[in-house]
Amino acid sequence: MTKLTINKIQEKIGHLALGMLVILTAGFLVGCQEEIDVDLPEYENKLVVEGTIETGQPAMVILSKSVSYYEHVDLDYLLNKVFIRDAEVSITTEDGQSERLTFQYCADSPVYFAYCGNQIRGKENTSYTLTIKYNDQTYTATTTIPRTFDLDSIWFSHMAEFLNADTMRTMRILMHDDPSEANFYAFKLKVSCPKFKDRLWNSTVPLAFDDKTFNGLTFNYELERYNVASMFMFDLTEEERQAQSRLTFRPGDTVYVKHSQMDYHSYQFMITGGLEATLGTNPFLNPAPVISNIQGENVLGCWCGLASKIDTVVWPDTVGYLNGTYGTKRLVRR
């Protein structure tokens, strides 16, 4: 009697579950047939400022317009509809020297042109004000180049987890942080080898970082090479493009390591701009707020002063073993 009752209960529960499934499925299908019209607001272009001045170097400023996520963008579109060539751009030092930048060919620019200076060169512990006049609007920003710093050592690090570790290395640096001040660091790399030569500086990951977790300490840090966007590699052959896409280093590489410090406002832009560049490719995620130091209406970007030095590390074609690292034969500072 008990067994029969349980079977009937199970049967009723099964019928109930089947009925609920049919109802939910029908509701889902009906709901999917409903059309929803969404009026997207018209996109408003912003002025985008990418400006730098480094120790010993003239100012370089690239001006462009932001574009909608749904816009089809290629190199031709960028050159003709995005980049701005008719603005008035100037810089002024803290002691009153001024220079108007001219729009010209620039090998250090991703698109081969920029507003560049010639007379005023970046100096440590000096502030520079950028002024841009465009479409009857004026935009300003001030940045300070802090002091430069030296690395204790740089080496190609052994990668024991790879079978071909003798021909693949990462790069590590050792440095000491100044405990008397807040520091904001950035590293960039260039590689020159028989198969390719980097034209542009490659950023490392992360784009910038502070010293909150190692203030006043000596720390060991791995430099991860970030690839330049393929849009700016149009002048490379397919073989060069594939060779350049690697993240590690090989015998025959000469690696230039640029290590820089920046002020806090430049650091804020690097961090928030890098986050937006990563998450902004997904239209279904909330955009990350980009903190800009440019003053004016409908503008974003950064005017960044960098206290930079460059070290050169060579890994000869003949691989050698020295103090637990491979190929660290020469370190040249300049």
Feature tags:
34% strand; disordered C terminus; three-stranded antiparallel beta sheet; 13-stranded mixed beta sheet; 334 residues; Immunoglobulin-like; single chain; 19% helix
Write a structural description:
This protein has about 325 residues and is α+β, with helices and mostly antiparallel strands. It has a domain of about 140 residues: Immunoglobulin-like. The N and C termini lie far apart (about 95 Å).
By DSSP (H or I, 4+ residues per run), the number of helices equals 4
Q: What number is the mean pLDDT?
A: 81
> Architecture of the domain at 153-261 and 308-333, CATH level 2?
Sandwich
- What's the count of strands? 18
Structural class: alpha+beta
Provide a short characterization of the protein structure.
This protein has 334 residues and is α+β, with helices and mostly antiparallel strands. The chain has helices at 2-32, 75-82, 238-244, 264-279; strands at residues 47-54, 60-65, 88-93, 98-105, 113-116, 126-134, 137-145, 153-157, 170-176, 184-192, 202-203, 209-210, 218-223, 254-261, 299-314, 321-322, 325-326, 330-333.
Topology, element by element:
Blueprint: H1 2-32, E1 47-54, E2 60-65, H2 75-82, E3 88-93, E4 98-105, E5 113-116, E6 126-134, E7 137-145, E8 153-157, E9 170-176, E10 184-192, E11 202-203, E12 209-210, E13 218-223, H3 238-244, E14 254-261, H4 264-279, E15 299-314, E16 321-322, E17 325-326, E18 330-333
